[in-house]
Automatic annotation (TrEMBL):
The chain crosses the membrane at residues 25-48, 69-91, 111-131, 151-169, 202-222, 257-279, 300-320, 340-358, 378-396, 402-421, 442-460, 472-495. The lineage of its organism: Eukaryota, Viridiplantae, Streptophyta, Embryophyta, Tracheophyta. It comes from Ilex paraguariensis. It is a multi-pass membrane protein. This is dolichol kinase. It is found in: Endoplasmic reticulum membrane. Belongs to the polyprenol kinase family. The keyword Transmembrane helix applies. Coiled coil: none annotated. Its main location: endoplasmic reticulum. InterPro entries: Polypren_kinase. Keywords: Endoplasmic reticulum, Kinase, Membrane, Transferase, Transmembrane, Transmembrane helix. Its EC number is 2.7.1.108. One of its GO terms (molecular function) is dolichol kinase activity.
Length: 500
């Protein structure tokens, strides 16, 4: 009886869906991606063992305060990005066979796949072997059983063997292979350090799997930015020994602009914290104690630093890696006005829909007893009405608009978290009208999840795409599927209550 209950608890719906998803990807892989398919299989098994171990010995991860009421989600968080990278590899392999793209783009994505896999594997190794031996507030140390440890060590040995064999067969130069291996391993170390920082800085804001997913994405995004910069430096130095010289790929101006904006905003809080500390140290204590002067000073520093980064630093990097014919912000203006009727009409339509919907839903959330989680699903339908026409008729402009919207969300969240006068309190009050038990006052991520759910399938589908429905994945799943399921669940609960 106990074994049956344990088996039913292990075989839940989420794991079944993940296993089906990964199995479909692996079985569709060609022989040329054998090493990547083996690594994805090993990563999936190791992630499953770590998740099960975390459930049966929850005290080992107790020092990381995850989101209340959420499952660990370690398996899903560990295989999502590697699975997407592997799927894209299969797609680009078809493109190379059709001579649609150069082989360099495929090889660079292969390198990114291994970096993504190393990030996830490094974090899993940290959670399974390092965290249980770290002292925490409860002074409880969880040790795994011998068979479980040997089982996990076998996964690590297999993964390391596949990893090294793949690089050894791909790169025949020993020194170059060592540099590439070091580059990939640095991604894994960076992911381990970053997820510790995220979980300790933003407690109860995400589950372990969500934090793993976000951490891996950020490390890969920053690593890609660094790779672009190194490639351009290598071009100026005219040296063949610098890493990534073989992997110069074509990038669109839109992808460079989005990457620059987002990474600039993600790094902005660190510079803001340092600037505010310097300002408070240099300001006399009498002035600091004056609240009005203090708030105005913080606002001035915030605006000046934001303008400096977005007018000088980020555009300079964009110009360096992409060779824009004009200033990047002027390129955006020219891009919008290249088809003014369609694109400006879309902008006006979006502004009207957002204004009417937000005003209406904000009043409902303050004065109605409708559940907030159901109220937030109205925004999913609103997003469908906004993005579906743009995706059909102006997909390139929608890619840029998603980047701009995400930059605005990040800016508003920074203003809210740092309580920047005079908007900090107003933004906090407004956002709290749409939060529920899954959000925290420290960090509100629901709107980011919704926007990224719509944007990522479109961004991943840019360039070569032989699957016409792939860009619509976010709209179909989040905008329609998730909303309808939630509505049906709430309606069934109400009918049960009425029947009782």
């Amino acid at each position: 009886m106990k074994l049956a209950a344990m088996a039913s608890s292990l075989a839940n719906g989420e794991r079944a869906v993940v296993v089906f998803f990964i199995s479909q990807i692996i079985f569709s892989a060609p022989f040329s991606l054998l090493h990547e398919a083996l690594s994805l299989s090993i990563l999936s098994f190791f992630a499953l063992s770590v998740e099960i171990s975390a459930e049966f010995s929850s005290e080992s991860l107790a020092q990381f305060k995850s989101r209340a009421g959420a499952s660990s989600g370690i398996l899903l968080g560990a295989v999502t990005l590697p699975g997407l990278m592997f799927s894209r590899l299969i797609q680009l392999l078809r493109a190379v066979s059709l001579h649609e793209i150069d082989s360099e783009e495929l090889e660079y994505l292969r390198l990114q796949y291994w970096a993504t896999s190393a990030c996830c594997f490094g974090v899993l190794f940290f959670f399974y072997f390092i965290v249980p031996h770290l002292p925490n507030d409860n002074h409880s140390i969880s040790f795994h059983s011998d068979w479980s440890t040997k089982f996990s060590l076998s996964f690590i040995a297999l993964y390391a063997a596949v990893f090294c064999v793949s690089f050894a067969t791909k790169f025949h130069c020993g020194g170059y292979t060592a540099v590439m291996l070091l580059w990939v391993l640095c991604h894994g170390l960076a992911a381990v350090k970053l997820i510790q920082h995220v979980l300790h800085t933003f407690p109860a804001c995400a589950s372990i799997g969500e934090a793993l997913l976000v951490t891996t994405g950020l490390v890969i995004y920053f690593g890609d930015m660094l790779a672009c910069t190194v490639v351009k430096i290598n071009g100026y130095l005219a040296s063949s020994e610098i890493v990534f010289v073989q992997y110069v790929i074509r990038r669109s101006e839109i992808s460079t602009i989005i990457q620059g904006m987002l990474l600039g905003l993600l790094l902005f809080p660190m510079f803001l914290k340092f600037s505010l500390q310097v300002w408070e140290c240099c300001t006399s204590s009498a002035h600091v104690e004056h609240r009005a002067y203090h708030e105005i000073g913080r606002t001035v520093i915030f605006c000046a630093l934001l303008a400096f980064i977005f007018i000088l630093i980020i555009p300079s990097w964009m110009q360096f890696v992409q060779d824009f014919p004009v200033h990047p912000w002027l390129w955006i203006v020219n891009f919008v006005f290249s088809e003014p009727l369609k694109r400006l009409s879309l902008c006006i339509y979006w502004v009207v829909v957002i204004y009417v919907s937000v005003l209406r839903f904000y009043n409902i959330s303050k004065n109605s007893k409708i559940e907030r989680i159901l109220l937030r699903k109205y925004y999913h339908l609103m997003a469908v009405s906004m993005f579906l026409p743009a995706l059909i008729f102006q997909s390139a402009f929608l890619e840029l608009a998603f980047g701009a919207a995400l930059a605005i969300f990040l800016t508003l969240e920074i203003i809210r978290v740092w309580r920047i006068w005079p908007l900090g309190h107003l933004v906090h009050q407004f956002m709290n009208a749409f939060t529920d038990h899954r959000d925290s006052d420290l960090l509100i991520v629901s709107h980011f999840s919704l926007l990224l759910g719509f944007a990522l399938p479109i961004w991943f589908s840019s360039g070569f795409d032989d699957r016409p429905l792939a860009p619509f994945a976010g709209i179909l799943s989040l905008g329609i599927g998730d909303t309808m399921v939630r509505v049906l669940v709430v309606m069934s609960c109400h009918f049960k209550i009425l029947a009782v």
